[in-house]
Design brief:
Layout: E1 2-5, H1 13-19, E2 25-28, E3 42-47, E4 50-55, H2 77-89, H3 95-106, H4 113-128, E5 134-136, E6 147-148, E7 161-162, H5 171-174, H6 182-189, H7 193-198, E8 201-202
Helix pairs in contact: 2-3, 3-4
Length: 203
Amino acid sequence: MQVLLPIFYLPPISWFSIFLNPDHEVIFEKFENFPKQTFRNRTNVYGANGKLSLIIPINHDGTRLISEIKVSHREKWQQIHWKSIKTAYQSSPFFEFYEDQLEKIFTFKTNSLMEFNLHALKIIQKILKVEKDFTFTEEYFKEPEQQNYREQFSPKLQTNFHMEEYYQTFSDKYGFLEDLSIIDLLCNKGPESLTYINNIKSK
């Protein structure tokens, strides 16, 4: 089955359950207008004070097409995000194991949001030891033929996927937070992450 997926920044775990499904032929949406307040330029991690949103600042130059969106380098957001992730996960079981690879996400130089997200995805796939092929859309269709997941994942809504609870560094304080960034799963579940992703079911 062909599925149409948005290109996210360190996507939520549920996104990976669609992306890595062996029955899915993945097509990334390249020609949509950039929607604000979505995972296209934000990711949620588990910080010392609960859920923490890390947001990539965007250059507002009138461009709307996702493939042309430029990131702003006025704030040193890459350093800030990496520092936040280190602070959040340095005492998790597997952070040290993946630290060097994860750091490469935040030393990558590009002005393109899409390029940054795809580079990060490449590193996450290496960590998960998977190689999933994908293609890109060639134009925008409001009602695509493929199974459409462009609006499926929202930072504002509860997830549509059932997540088994797993140990999280701060869960003693705030309980289990479901469907955070893939980073949360990797740092807490390590090599079991792929099995966990494969067991996710829609609600």
